[in-house]
Amino acid sequence: MTDNDYMLEALAEAALAEAEGEMPVGCVIVRNGEIIARAHNECEARGDATAHAELLAIRRASAAAGGWRLNDCALYATLEPCPMCAGAIVQARVGRLVYGAADPGQGCAGSLYRIPEDPAFPHFCRCEGGVLAGECEAPLKRFFGQRR
Q: Active site includes 34?
């Protein structure tokens, strides 16, 4: 499978979030070509500001991998990670981050800052943005358009 294929899987998770009235962000984590975890935002359902797709997926991937170090994994997110999620990606030692839509307001994997690639931290995570960006932006535009 390609980056686009995995991002389509993350978009399927974002669609679940949208159907549940959540901010439509989805995430999958891949190890050796296999999706080992998938998640979407659940902040509203859980009443938990930390229930972002990336954090939920990292927890599930750690359980599937049998440990918290995910250095042989790639994380695909439909939206550029916020500071909290970018920090969790570093802490989980994720090997590669691929995201769709940039987040100029709080994105910390390229827009405002590059937390996963900052040499000040003990782990470096290669980041690539813009994969299926238009497809990833569309549900976010719908979501925020309905709330403004």
A: no
